[in-house]
Design a protein that fits this description.
This is GH3 auxin-responsive promoter. One of its GO terms (cellular component) is cytoplasm. GO terms for molecular function: acid-amino acid ligase activity. The chain has 508 residues and is α/β, with parallel strands linked by helices. It is globular. It has a seven-stranded antiparallel beta sheet with strand order 10-11-12-16-15-14-13. Among the domains are: 195 residues, no CATH class; 132 residues, GMP Synthetase, Chain A, domain 3 (2-Layer Sandwich), CATH 3.30.300. Strand 11 and strand 12 form a beta hairpin.
Length: 508
């Protein structure tokens, strides 16, 4: 038996035995009170009367009344931009030591999201909590002696005056404590390589020298990394290189669309653990087996609000209308989509992170990410959300025996009428016309509004099949490879025209 692993596992069990779960509602009120108290003397706190809110009998209700919703563009234009010019005490005391760069899924220019010392500590504490829950997954003792591959963005951060900039995965990795560095792969030297292809090549070269027990990273880029390792060593699956690989931890992206693709590159199943680490904070993680849902972290620097995900509350750019109703944590319902609104120890206030979620278990406070507010196709009333699209794509994979790890769709006009045009990254053989017919039928069954639209103004569905690598190259062209970059699932017509031009250049 692995002695050190047994000791570590025993310590984790002992830690869990003495730490009780906080009451979620009390924890959230305490978090909000702490946020308001610490930021009451900032410019933002003074402008919105945090001291007055703190005196209220119901601070959660008063807070929602006094402070408007902010998306990135609004809070950056009105507040965060002042920090870029050197101002202090803007939305949080002092100045942040980091800014997380996040191009997300919507364009070439990066968002610059403040990351404070308080947020770094919150991320660290949530990471410790997640490690503690690994004992729930019945892992053998020797797992706790294995190395962890953390596939994120470069740790070579860009120094800008008194702060550094990079993606949140790179910022987090650059702050790994010294005692963990022996477990951390690919190590600081390889992680600092900026060029993603070169970094992955170096990982492939060194792969046989490591005993990896767990991998963390966004599924699409993790898949590409593993394929590069297989190609370099001329093997069929990653367990030929890392026989002790037992856990894969995702990051902020649902794993289900990539499940079949991963089956082809693994020698045997691994435990998949979902995590929700965004540029704005570490929001949730999967705490138990038997589910892919994640437990919200309710007592560690992030205050949550929820807006029903309905077309009448969402502007075309994905922002919320000013008077959109808010559902409190006590009133959320299972299996209903909500727009996630957060306030954090990095000075984000009533901030739209851009994701939609649903509660799968209200008692356990467990959620799943269901899509993005901008990934919502509502031209001619189809009201099609990403989770419905992904469910339909999974049905196609089963029906046709193929793998579809990537797709994108737009509502476009053809002969003066609207159709939904899909591009699917397909591994395997299937006729596009048959895919379109089956996709249309699945969506009609799953979404009443879509069915009504198909009887009226939405005149058809068209599918184009391409190699999944085209999607990766599009990301490389428009943003960069690796890190937190995610493929946009829904495009506007002008962006879709650029996409189609790019596809033609790649396939001709």
């Amino acid at each position: 038996m692995a002695v050190i692993g047994s000791i570590i596992k025993g310590l984790l069990h002992a830690r869990d035995a003495v730490i009780s779960e906080p009451d979620p509602f009390e924890a959230q009120e305490k978090v909000l009170r702490g946020l308001l108290e610490k930021a009451k003397d900032t410019e933002f706190g003074k402008f919105y009367g945090f001291k007055e809110i703190l005196k209220s009998e119901n601070i959660q209700k008063k807070y929602a009344q006094k402070v408007p919703f902010f998306d990135y563009n609004k809070i950056n234009e009105e507040w965060w931009s002042k920090m870029h010019e050197g101002a202090e005490n803007v939305t949080w005391p002092g100045r942040p030591p980091y800014f997380a760069l996040s191009s997300g899924t919507t364009g070439k220019s990066s968002k610059r999201i403040p990351v404070t010392d308080d947020m770094m500590e919150a991320i660290r504490q949530t990471g410790i909590k997640q490690v503690g829950t690994l004992t729930n997954f019945d892992l053998p003792s020797d797992f706790f002696e294995k190395e962890i591959m953390m596939l994120g963005s470069s740790t070579d951060l860009d120094k800008k005056g008194d702060h550094e900039e990079g993606e949140i995965s790179g910022i987090s990795a650059s702050n790994i404590p010294f005692w963990f560095r022996d477990f951390y792969k690919p190590g600081m030297e390889i992680s600092s390589i900026n060029d993603w292809d070169e970094r992955v090549l170096q990982i492939a070269k060194e792969a046989k020298n490591w005993d990896i027990g767990a991998i963390t990273g966004i599924p699409s880029w993790t898949e590409l990394m593993i394929k590069k390792i297989l190609e370099y060593h001329n093997v069929q699956n990653i367990h030929e290189i890392w026989p002790n690989l037992q856990v894969y931890s995702t990051g902020g992206v649902a794993f289900e669309p990539y499940e079949k693709a991963f089956e082809k590159i693994l020698g045997h199943p691994v435990i998949v653990i979902d995590t929700y680490l965004a540029s704005e904070g570490f929001l949730a993680f999967q705490a138990r087996p038997g589910t892919l849902a994640m437990k919200l972290v309710l007592d560690n620097g992030i205050y949550f609000e929820f807006v029903p995900f309905k077309p009448e509350f969402i502007n075309e750019d994905g922002s919320l209308i000013p008077d959109a109703p808010v559902v409190g944590l006590k009133d959320v319902k299972e299996e209903e989509d909500y727009v996630l609104v957060i306030s954090t120890v990095s000075g984000a206030w009533r901030y739209l992170i851009g994701d939609t979620i649903k509660f799968t278990d209200v008692e356990k406070m467990e959620i799943k990410i269901t899509g993005r507010t901008k990934f919502f196709l509502n031209v001619v009333g189809s009201q099609l959300s990403v989770n419905k699209m992904q469910d339909a794509v999974k049905e196609l994979e089963k029906e046709f025996g193929i793998t579809i790890p990537e797709f994108t769709v737009a509502a476009v006009q053809k002969d003066g009428e609207y159709i939904h045009k899909w591009y699917m990254g397909v591994e395997g053989e299937a006729k596009a016309e048959k895919l379109a017919e089956a996709l249309d039928n699945h969506l009609k069954e799953a979404n009443k509004n879509y069915g009504v639209a198909r009887q009226k103004a939405l005149k058809g569905v068209e599918v184009v099949t391409i190699s999944p690598t085209v999607f990766h190259e599009w990301s490389a062209k428009n943003k960069k490879k690796g890190g937190q970059v995610k493929m946009e699932k829904v495009m506007k017509e002008d962006k879709f025209a650029e996409w189609e031009k790019f596809v033609r250049s790649m396939t001709n």
